[in-house]
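Fold Annotation — chain and its backbone

Fields — amino acid sequence, structure tokens

___
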Amino acid sequence: MASASPHGCDERDAPPGLAELLIRERPALLRLAQRILGNDHGAEDVVQAVWLKLRSVGDASAIDNPRAYLFKLAANLATDWGRERTRRNQLLAEHYLWGPDEALSAEEQAMAQDELQRVLAAAERLPEPTRTIFRLNRLQGLTQAEIARRLSVSVTTVENHVRAALQRLANARIGR
């Protein structure tokens, strides 16, 4: 009879070698996911997704280096998770900036156009490196961790610049 792992996973669902390896490497996998995502949020979900993916592995003996496989799988899932988070954030930002799609009157269209011009002008006036970081994050879809690595700054620095940019654009939107 299979037993449940100490982490709440049923070991009978994944190939035994991979299940044991996942349990043993779980702290390192969490740290890897946290580094890729730039914070703790989502790392547990990524490791859980690794577990679910392992359940679909039929023949674990065909994997030459199970540890490398496990870490590559976690890195790929964390990257995917980060991209999905960025996409969701972009959709939310668009929704909050522009509101739901609906037919606008001529006056509303003019006001929206004015609002858009204020936001675009504010985006152009963002100081460096805030403008570059905002562009990389919101327009090119890089995660904050990817930007931090690219610019050799901390993730906290990236978060602060993105937050400052969003605040300036929100202020421009309402005419401050």
The first helix runs from residue 16 to 37.
